[in-house]
Design brief:
Elements lengths: L2 H12 L12 H5 L1 H4 L12 H30 L3 H25 L4 H7 L12 H10 L14 H12 L3 H11 L6 H4 L11 H12 L5 H32 L11 H7 L6 H5 L5
Bound molecules: protoporphyrin IX containing FE (HEM) and N'-Formylkynurenine.
The site of N'-Formylkynurenine has 10 residues, from loops.
Length: 283
């Protein structure tokens, strides 16, 4: 069949689906590829710098989608609509698998390869990824001190300020527990959300009750396990980042001014959902 006949057949088939709203729309225009594919600007002439840029850009795109899903999931939890929330969280888990897998591609970068273009990075660093920081805030790792580095970027700063000041996904899960009749301390249900979350024995007891009678609380149990899955994957990403950094720059200082691996290893101690892990010792 000729291309022309094919084209006309599709045009007919798609008529009912609103194709006439923009019949000239192309793949590249729809996806904004002009801008996307013109956004890689290596600063050196080194072959491997493009890999470094693409991995980071792809990661930022996945982070954008994760934020979209997690904020929507949080809204569904707020509305007691756990089914749609589960679907969104499951998608984030698969995105995390992609993010984790990207370390495998980056591990083809040897110390010699990286050292050739590292000086061109100046003081730029993943430390300045505001989407990463937003993810941490939306999940529940509130650390207002991390805002400082974004002072010069009003859009990023405003988004971070908002995420810092509103309940995280975990805060909403605890409010849901309270609506279901669990005894959650008042200061965990309404507080200055900008403060780091502090683990509470009452919250652990509530989750423990969910895990001890899963039949009675099946959806809460499912929510808890989905959160545990998110945290485990997040930790796997952090750990692989740290090991990749060690492999590529050893124990050199980071371009962002931290100790490098020593800083990244401390970040591994940060937990989003502390009671969901601590309760396991009592099961
Ligand atoms: C050769 C590859 C990489 C090296 C050597 C590296 C190195 C580092 C170092 C040393 C830090 C600590 C901050 C500093 O002082 O600069 C850091 C932070 C960070 N990097 Fe990377 N990195 C690499 C790849 C990536 C990739 C692919 C991403 C994906 C987006 C990423 C995201 C981040 C983030 C989000 C932080 C902040 C972590 C936090 O504050 O907990 N890095 N990186
Ligand atoms: N902190 C890294 C530099 C770095 O990795 C980086 C630099 C610019 C943009 C993204 C980066 N990735 C993660 O930190 C280093 O010290 O080599």
């Amino acid at each position: 069949m000729s291309t022309e006949t094919n084209r006309r057949r599709y045009a007919v088939d798609l008529e009912g689906e609103g194709v006439h709203e923009r019949p000239d729309l192309s793949y590249g225009a729809y996806l904004g590829l002009d801008t996307l594919l013109a956004s890689q600007h290596p600063r050196s002439d080194e072959h491997d710098e493009l890999l470094f840029i693409v991995i980071h850009q792809a990661s930022e795109l996945w982070m954008k989608l994760s934020l979209h899903e997690l904020r929507a999931a949080r809204e569904q939890v707020r509305k007691d609509e756990l089914g749609p929330a589960f679907k969104m969280i499951a998608r984030v888990a698969r995105i995390q698998a992609q993010l984790i897998q990207s370390w495998d591609v980056l591990s083809t970068l040897t110390p010699a390869d990286y050292t050739r273009f590292r000086p061109y990075l100046g003081q730029s660093s993943g430390f300045q990824s505001w989407q990463y920081r937003l993810l941490e805030y939306v999940l529940g790792n509130k650390n207002a001190g991390m805002m400082a580095v974004h002072r010069g970027d009003p859009t990023a700063h405003a988004a971070l300020e908002q995420a810092l000041a509103e309940p995280s996904l975990y805060d909403e899960a605890l409010r849901l527990l309270a609506r279901r009749g669990f005894d959650i301390p008042a200061d965990r249900l309404d507080r200055d959300w900008r403060e780091p979350y502090r683990a509470s024995p009452e919250v652990e007891a509530a989750w423990l009750a969910v895990y001890r009678d899963t039949a009675a609380h099946w959806d809460l149990y499912e929510l808890a396990e989905k959160l545990v899955d998110l945290e485990q994957r997040f930790q796997t990403w952090r750990f692989s980042h740290m090991k990749t950094v060690e492999r590529v720059i050893g124990f050199k200082q980071g371009t962002g001014g931290t100790g490098g691996v020593s800083y990244l290893s401390k970040a591994l101690d940060l937990t989003f959902f502390p009671e969901l892990f601590s309760l396991r010792t009592s099961l």
